[in-house]
Amino acid sequence: MNKPKLEVIIPSINGLFLLKKHLPEAIAFSGKDTAITVVDDDSVDGTLDYLAANFPKVKCLRQDQNLGFTKSVNHGFGESSADLVILLNNDVSPKKNYLASALKHFDHDRTFAVTLDETTSSWPLVSWDGKLQYIRGEDKTAPRFSAWASGGSAIFRKSIWDELGGFDEIYSPGYWEDIDIGWRAWKAGYQIIWEPKALVEHRHESSFSKLDQNFVSLVKQRNELIFNWKNISDPDLRHDHFLYLLRHTLIHPGYLKVVFAALKAYPQVKKTKGIITDREVLALVNQPLA
């Protein structure tokens, strides 16, 4: 594509100490013409005053109540006029030239997103065993088709983001919303690429680590179920999932709490439709680019 208009969006809540560490690198390595926006999720740590005093060119979107990660990201995208949006967690530091290799993939007009190479992680090696499963891929030598783009470090084509409706806020406050939009993109006929030369360092110091971890665990597991119920339409895979739920609940009766939490949210689910089947997506992802 012709030189695209770029914008970095960084959602943050009480993350001043993280912005002090990582924002300078995001500004320095994202290009002088790239807009930088921090979506402040009702912080009380002086974030806005600090940014105004030290980074006056950084745009701040202030939320008057804590909306969580998923809604904060949608807020930022909704205010953006960029062609490509770089979504970074406030605990992510991009490396020099991290955009050069990634942006080339957007020459293909079906590319929805490019997920960046977190130095301590990898691309998601996806499989199906009663539910969507993934581990870290071991071969980091070449770009791969990825099932999704990380919500903490990725570049998204804004026009397709808008077409897909952004993150589904049923996943609020967070977790699985990036996997969900990735699956929806694939089923709509788009592609997502993991680029090993687009290096960032993710320190995993975000505000989620400060929450009650029992609550975080419940949200993660609830959202995992919502993802599978919302997105998987293949009858045989759905049957596999039902058997998984039955087995897992019999072995772990406490899992019923998760099931009930997901059932409570289920009336809000909007089922995913597409031109690509679940099995076709599973066959397309994980593969190296030709």
TrEMBL record:
One of the record's GO molecular function terms: glycosyltransferase activity
NAD in keyword set: no
Glycosyltransferase recorded as keyword: yes
Swiss-Prot/TrEMBL keywords: Glycosyltransferase, Transferase
Domain Glycosyltransferase 2-like: 8-161
One Pfam family per UniProt: Glycos_transf_2
UniProt family annotation: Belongs to the glycosyltransferase 2 family.
Name of the protein this chain belongs to: Glycosyltransferase 2-like domain-containing protein
Protein's organism: Candidatus Wildermuthbacteria bacterium RIFCSPHIGHO2_02_FULL_47_17
Lineage: Bacteria, Candidatus Wildermuthiibacteriota
